[in-house]
Design goal:
heterodimer, A: about 110 residues, mainly beta, six-stranded mixed β-sheet, four-stranded antiparallel β-sheet, about 50% strand, B: about 120 residues, about 0% helix
Chain lengths: ~110, ~120
């Protein structure tokens, strides 16, 4: 069945560091891919999405490219801020979620 | 900006009691969903609902659970005879189209259910 694998956290970075959170998937067909963010004490918010191969989703400085050949959708940000501290979920067609990766950014 | 709203934000119930979690989806959305997230764990899909019937459900969604759209605006999740392991954050979501059609689901803030 469909599945999503994410790098395990927690990830701790200093402010302005480069962030990568790996996500790979297994699916039949051509699903849409999503990154959701969950800030402390809040619900899920869509961060970015890509609906087909080679699409790049971007928002708030975060980017992820839908790589069909490697079945990946890695999340990147060039310079993280303390306010980016949250849990990040990679998801497949909004139905299958990865386990989440907790990011802590230190000032 | 339209949003999905859930009530209550936190519900505490005794084991064995029934609870109803309420959601008001975005008004022009046609597809509705419930997910749950046990503390510190991943988000799990429970059920999707369209045209007044369940369109898909996961293994988690057993006879203990039911969903209903009692009127034109609310979408409820009922848990009969709650168990300790039902303690989780429950998220409601809605979308214009079905999720297989590459659309986006909008999530509510969640209801934290604590079973004691």
């Amino acid at each position: 069945g469909d599945s999503v694998t994410q790098m395990e956290g927690p990830v701790t970075l200093s402010e302005e560091a480069f962030l990568t959170i790996n996500c790979t998937y297994t699916a039949t067909g051509y699903p849409s891919l999503f990154w959701y963010v969950q800030y402390p004490g809040e619900g899920l918010q869509l961060l970015l999405k890509a609906t087909k191969a080679d699409d790049k989703g971007s928002n708030k400085g975060f980017e992820a490219t839908y790589r069909k050949e490697t079945t990946s959708f890695h999340l990147e940000k060039g310079s993280v801020q303390v306010s980016d501290s949250a849990v990040y979920f990679c998801a497949l067609s909004d139905r299958v979620f990865g386990p989440g990766t907790r990011l802590s950014v230190l000032p | 900006e339209p949003e999905v709203t859930q009530t209550p934000s936190h519900q505490v119930t005794q084991m064995g009691q029934e609870v109803i979690l309420r959601c008001v989806p975005i008004s022009n959305h046609l597809y509705f969903y419930w997910y749950r997230q046990i503390l510190g764990q991943k988000v799990e899909f429970l059920v999707s609902f369209y045209n007044n019937e369940i369109s898909e459900k996961s293994e988690i969604f057993d006879d203990q659970f039911s969903v209903e759209r009692p009127d034109g605006s609310n979408f409820t999740l009922k848990i009969r005879s709650t168990k300790l392991e039902d303690s989780a954050m429950y998220f409601c979501a809605s979308s214009v189209q079905g999720l297989r059609v590459n659309t986006e689901a909008f999530f509510g803030q969640g209801t934290r259910l604590t079973v004691v």
